[in-house]
Design goal:
Layout lengths: L2 H10 L7 H21 L2 E3 H7 L7 H9 L8 E3 L5 E4 H8 L2
């Protein structure tokens, strides 16, 4: 397959070729944006914290396990009226130092 054919196929599917370093920079920028958003809030959901990659645990189940094991204290989380578990900003910052 020739280069021009490949480029046409990629364009037709809405894709493009980028340098590995540029891709890493884009991913890093997105993660930084999510982290800043989470840290600005008074409390964040388990899902938001998992996506932000602020903590060494990366899944919702792991964060729930931290609640069960009381790594996240009782005063640092609550259930919102919509049923979602919310974790306070002070806890997010404290555990971000892991």
């Amino acid at each position: 397959m020739e280069t021009q054919e490949l480029i046409k196929i990629l364009k037709a599917n809405g894709l493009m070729v980028v340098a590995r370093q540029d891709y890493r920079n884009m991913v890093t920028a997105r993660i930084n944006e999510v982290q800043a958003t989470v840290l600005r809030k008074k409390a964040a959901t388990i899902g938001e914290i998992a996506k932000s990659e602020l903590w060494p645990v990366k899944t919702r189940q792991s964060i729930k396990r931290w609640i069960d094991e009381q790594i996240i204290n009782e005063k640092e989380w609550y259930t919102a009226p919509n049923g979602k578990i919310m974790i306070t900003n002070s806890c997010i910052r404290r555990l971000s130092e892991f």
